[in-house]
Sequence to fold (139 residues):
Amino acid sequence: MRWYEIIILIIAILLVIVPIVTHFVKKKNGSLKCECGHLQSECGKTCTSCNKVNEEIRKLIDNNPIKHKYIVYINGMKCGMCETHINDVIRRSFNVTYVKSYRDKKMTIITSELSLNLDELTKIISNEGYDVVSINQLI
Fold:
């Protein structure tokens, strides 16, 4: 190998390794930012887009006469297609009246006339490659 080929190889390796190491350092220090631009640890406190989502969730829960309401916290949603995919899987698997996912909040809101089998819900979402962190049933 010539000296300039070695330099090109070193530069290429650094261009790949440095962003990966930086990501993990930021994650460890808690300084990763949400898509809204706020620190993940502070998200929802000052962000207008996060507050908009929180307000929409509050209105849905308060104004909806449907008996069964769930908030499912899910890791692994990266884009709008992930949100759509999770919504479609839930609609196909359960008789729900409403389902909406928020990748930035890592949550899916579900309302249903009938009670859902939470183990089955977890299994169906997990089978699609997502990680169900928790499910809160609202009364």
In short: The mean pLDDT is 79. The chain has four helices and four strands.
